[in-house]
Amino acid sequence: MTPTWTRLPDLASRAVGGGVAWANDELFAERENLITKAEPEYRPHTFGHKGQIYDGWETRRRREAGDDSAIVRLGLPGVIRGVVIDTAFFKGNYPPFATVEATRATGHPSPDELTGWEVVVPKSPLEGDRKHYFDVAVERRYTHVRLIIHPDGGVARLRVFGEPVADPGLLLPDALDLAALENGASVTGCSNMFYSSPSNLIAPGQANSMGDGWETARRRDDGNDWVEIRLAAAGRVRLAELDTSHFKGNAPGWASVRGRDARKDPDDWFDLLPRTRLQPDTRHRFRVSGGEVTHARLDIYPDGGMARLRLFGSLTEDGLAELVRRHGELTG
């Protein structure tokens, strides 16, 4: 059974700004493939001047003692809940064992400046052409991970699922996207995720296609679809952006946004943006007003797809204090 933590964001994905900063060897297949968002592919009889072309990272055969490794800079620093090491299509050339380490750094260090590595997945056996799931139970904020393969071979993908934790020193408390993954927001529930994950709604950057957004199945009843988001911290929303880019024949007809303050009354939802008509393939921006909120709910009518949801506003004093406290607990 697939672990529930795979529903969390992939902190390492290129789609959220991750990068493979270094690898000691990538003779057969490039290290950057490790964090490609798409599932790995295999095309038989596609040979380059170094042999079969693989959609993954592959090192040469070692003839001396040692191991190979690659360092990934997380696009979304945060708490790691689980790691997937995928050896898809590597059958006679996969590594028999792997270890995953992590560290946290400030600023923008080069790979050789990173120190303080901690083991989050101990040396574990691998098999060829399969996904390996590893739980991580370390309550720390990390910015980089290091995949070590023993001794050499190929890995198609490295997925690092977890909860983003923002650095409060890089936030402007009076002007930020309270619903952004990179600021610490998260999806807490949704009615339907048939085509794609609702976490895409609050991912960094603009959507490149419909697959980068949230899309539901077609409804055949009188209801509507929705997604609920725990904001980065308590704040006041001033501007809402509802982006239907790329959704042309399947955009919602209407949408609304409500908020609640779970610290006071978790059942008291109030309008931030009343039910409003939407256009296909359009970035809609609305001024909104309302009280302090810790959660928001987007309702779409009746169904369809949304590329991004942005809720720009300001943190309350309590909200900023909460972010500072959590960051300190996870980095101290």
From TrEMBL:
InterPro entries: Allantoicase, Allantoicase_dom, Galactose-bd-like_sf. This is Probable allantoicase. Residues 17-164, 184-314 form the Allantoicase domain. It is an enzyme of class 3 (hydrolase). Belongs to the allantoicase family. Signal peptide: none annotated. Pathway: Nitrogen metabolism; (S)-allantoin degradation; (S)-ureidoglycolate from allantoate (aminidohydrolase route): step 1/1. One of its GO terms (biological process) is allantoin catabolic process. Its EC number is 3.5.3.4. PANTHER family: ALLANTOICASE (PTHR12045), INACTIVE ALLANTOICASE-RELATED (PTHR12045:SF3). SUPFAM superfamilies: Galactose-binding domain-like. The gene is alc. It comes from Saccharothrix tamanrassetensis. Keywords: Hydrolase, Purine metabolism. GO terms for molecular function: allantoicase activity. NCBIfam families: allantoicase. It catalyses: allantoate + H2O = (S)-ureidoglycolate + urea.
